[in-house]
Design brief:
The protein is mainly beta and about 425 residues long. Strand 35 and strand 36 form a beta hairpin.
Length: about 425
């Protein structure tokens, strides 16, 4: 008898081989007549099994000459069914371990993904099978399980190419994290993980098969490879375009000079740390019209026009620096010198009066520099250098410029 088993629902076509089968009047499976049968020859009958209950029943043929010896036919439970496939997608290269859940899975003889048998499978119980996917092509295939009771209903499994990351924007940000990065690539649908180095993104959103937006976690200064994981695998790293570069916050120690004219234009050297890749230098809220990153510790920047004291800051991918003060200075003016005359010898003390004198860097008697002491915004005490008799112009220089001049007159000593 072939086959010797079939589903309890019946409907299996069985071929019976023997002798003296001509004129058969009955074929029974246990006490139940076959749904139908055909006598093909004195040695062969084909019969369709009736419904039965799981277990073994005797199969007999009756003719006018009597009833045959019995052969055993096994009714098995209803055919297998599938209710879930987890995961429901995987790499086209195969190798994904899939858990199939359903009923009637005992004795499975085949698990197929489309028309291709699983690389391997294990029947864990009547309700669970684990199978390893074979290689496939991108797209959806039906997954089925076959037992002696039949073939299950199909469930969908999607073959996907492994994800590929091709670019990041922006490609850098602060070590504190929090930067929203747009990741571009291919086959990003169904991403289950986005990592910066070994640290998962704070959050991410799959926008399409070619784009993900992710928020960076905190990291350490340097490059971190960005990877995307889907059911098909994890993206590869290697090119610089797949690395996110963490930057320490910039720090400023000083600005030199610390003051300049209100009209701007002064070249200011900023000294600090982690200044590379600066994107802006600001004097208060006003950006420098031009700046040059000399090194990680030096930037030269042109002061824009301004007034008063302004905090100078540097912006890099690592964030915004602390501030150092820069003073905008109005041009100095002189209103008088007291006394206005003296001997040709050095050493006379003169008090210069005026405005905007507190940042004075030079006091000149003609072309000769004098030593001086700043007393206030409106007063300077200077020591007159030696010189020839006659009038000499006195000027003051500050970061705001050179003042107007006042006259000091040297008088020759009397002679006898």
């Amino acid at each position: 008898m072939t086959p010797s088993s079939g589903p309890a629902s019946g409907g299996t076509t069985v071929t019976l081989v023997g002798t003296g089968l001509t004129g058969a009047t009955s074929v029974k499976f246990g006490s139940t007549p076959a749904t139908s049968f055909t006598v093909n020859s004195p040695t062969q009958i084909t019969a369709v099994t009736p419904a039965g209950t799981p277990g073994v029943v005797p199969v007999t043929v009756t003719t006018t000459a009597g009833t045959s010896n019995p052969l055993a036919f096994s009714y098995v439970a209803a055919g297998p069914t599938l209710s879930s496939v987890t995961p429901s997608s995987g790499s086209t290269s195969g190798g994904t371990t899939v858990t199939l859940v359903g009923t009637g899975l005992t004795g499975a003889t085949s698990v197929k993904f489309g028309s291709t048998p699983a690389t391997s499978f294990t029947v864990n119980s009547a309700t669970q099978i684990t199978a390893v996917t074979p290689a496939g092509t991108p797209g959806v295939v039906p997954v089925t399980v076959t037992t002696t009771a039949g073939t299950s209903n199909p469930l969908a499994f999607s073959y996907q190419n492994s994800p590929v990351v091709t670019g990041l924007a922006p490609g850098n940000g602060p070590t504190s994290g929090g930067t929203t990065v747009t990741i571009t690539g291919t086959d990003l649908t169904g991403a289950t993980s986005v990592k910066f180095g070994s640290t998962p993104a704070t959050s991410f959103t799959v926008n399409s098969a070619t784009q993900i937006t992710a928020v960076t976690p905190a990291g350490t200064a340097g490059g971190a490879p960005v990877t995307v994981t889907t059911a098909a695998g994890t993206s590869a790293t290697g090119s610089a375009s797949t690395y996110f570069f963490y930057a320490n916050p910039p720090h400023l120690d000083e600005a030199a000079p610390t003051a300049g004219p209100a009209a701007g234009g002064t070249t200011v050297t900023l000294t600090g740390a982690d200044l590379l890749n600066a994107t802006a230098v600001r004097f208060g809220t006003v950006p420098s019209p031009s700046f040059t990153v000399v090194s990680s510790t030096h930037i030269t920047a042109t002061a824009p026009p301004g007034s008063g004291y302004r905090p100078v800051t540097v912006v890099t991918p690592g964030g915004t620096s602390n501030s150092v003060l820069y003073a905008y200075v109005d041009p100095p003016t002189l209103t008088g010198a007291s006394p206005a005359s003296g001997t040709t010898e050095a050493g006379a003390q003169v008090t210069l009066s005026g405005t905007n004198l507190s940042h004075t860097s030079k006091v000149s008697f003609g072309a000769v520099l004098a030593s001086f002491t700043i007393i206030s915004e409106t007063m300077i005490s200077a020591i007159v250098p030696a010189g020839a008799a006659g009038a000499v112009p006195v000027t003051v220089t500050t970061p705001g410029g050179v003042s107007n001049s006042v006259t000091y007159t040297r008088v020759s000593p009397p002679g006898i």
